[in-house]
Specification:
Elements lengths: L3 E6 L4 H10 L3 E7 L7 E4 L5 H8 L4 E4 L9 H22 L3 E7 L12 H6 L23 H20 L2 E7 L11 H6 L3 H13 L6 E6 L11 H7 L14
Parallel strand pairs: 1-2, 1-4, 2-3, 4-5, 5-6, 6-7
Helix pairs in contact: 1-7, 2-3, 3-5
Length: 253
C-alpha cells in the first residue's frame, strides 16, 4: 500500500523539520516553501499567490499547514501569511480535492486568559501563589487572543470551520504549545505551555490519520506539564493523544 501523500507548508521551519525527520518513513512528503527543503520534493512559491501554489496540491491526500508569520504585532506579514495565505491554502486544497487539512493554530488564540489569576501567576512562575487545582482552558472556552498574531490564528480556525461546513473538507486545528529548538523550556511561560517534540510528532500523526468522519475539530496541544494551563483532554478522547513528555524536570527548585 502506498504511503499517504502529504503536502507540508513551512517545511523548513522548526515544526516542519521535526515532523519530516520523524515521519518521513511513513508519509510521502512534499514541501511548499519559499526555499528548497533537503530530502523532499519541493514546490517554491509564496502562499500569498494562489495561482502560484495550486500545482503543489494536485494529487495530495492531506495538507499539513505549518507556515505562518510569527511576529506578534507584525500586521503586514500577518496579513499576507496568516490571513491571505491561510485562505489560499484552504482554497487550493478544496480545488485539488484534498480530503484532510491539518492547520497549525496556536495557544496565542487564548493566551489573553493569562491576564487573570491563576494563569497570570502560572505564566510568571509564581508557583507559591497558584492553588492546588485550577480550571484548565479548553477548546470550548471563548477565544481570547493576546496579539494580532493570535487573532490571525482565530481567523484560521474559523475559516477551517467554514471549509468543513460548506465545502466538505475534513479540517483539524491544532493549538500548538511552546515548541522549542532544544526541547528544553527555560522560562515559566515555556514551562507552562511546553509541547515536547515527541508529543508534537504524535499529535500530527494522529491528526493526519484521524478517521474521515471528523469534519472539523479543534485540539489543545501541550505536554503533560504540572503547571499546564490548557486541557488536552479532548485530544485524548477523540484522537487518542497520550503525551509522553513533561516540563516538570525544568521547574526551578
Amino acid at each position: 500500500m502506498a504511503n499517504k501523500r502529504v503536502l507540508v507548508t513551512g517545511a523548513s521551519g522548526r515544526v516542519g523539520g521535526i515532523v519530516l525527520r520523524a515521519l518521513g518513513h511513513k508519509y510521502e512528503f512534499t514541501a511548499l516553501n519559499r526555499r528548497p527543503v533537503e530530502g523532499v520534493r519541493c514546490f517554491q512559491a509564496d502562499l500569498a499567490q494562489l495561482d502560484a501554489i495550486l500545482p503543489a496540491f494536485e494529487g495530495q491526500d492531506a495538507v499539513l499547514h505549518l507556515a505562518a508569520a510569527t511576529g506578534l504585532h507584525d500586521w503586514p506579514n500577518v496579513l499576507s501569511a496568516n490571513i491571505a495565505g491561510v485562505y489560499n491554502v484552504f482554497e487550493a486544497a478544496r480545488r485539488a480535492g484534498v480530503r484532510r487539512v491539518v492547520f497549525a493554530s496556536s495557544g496565542a488564540a487564548i493566551l489573553g486568559y493569562g491576564l487573570e489569576s491563576p494563569y497570570r501567576e502560572i505564566l510568571a512562575g509564581q508557583y507559591d501563589k497558584v492553588p492546588k487545582e485550577w480550571p484548565r482552558v479548553n477548546e470550548r472556552w471563548p477565544v481570547r487572543p493576546d496579539s494580532v498574531y493570535g487573532a490571525s490564528k482565530v481567523f484560521g480556525e474559523a475559516l477551517a470551520r467554514y471549509y468543513a461546513d460548506y465545502h466538505g473538507l475534513s479540517m483539524i486545528c491544532l493549538r500548538l504549545g511552546a515548541i522549542l529548538a532544544d526541547d528544553r523550556p527555560s522560562s515559566p511561560r515555556a514551562i507552562a505551555g511546553y509541547a515536547g517534540h515527541a508529543d508534537v510528532v504524535q499529535i500530527v500523526e494522529l491528526a493526519l490519520d484521524a478517521d474521515s468522519s471528523i469534519r472539523f475539530d479543534l485540539f489543545e496541544v501541550v505536554s503533560n506539564n504540572r503547571y499546564r494551563w490548557r486541557d488536552f483532554g479532548h485530544a485524548s478522547e477523540v484522537l487518542g493523544f497520550k503525551p509522553k513528555t513533561s516540563s516538570d524536570r525544568f521547574i526551578p527548585g
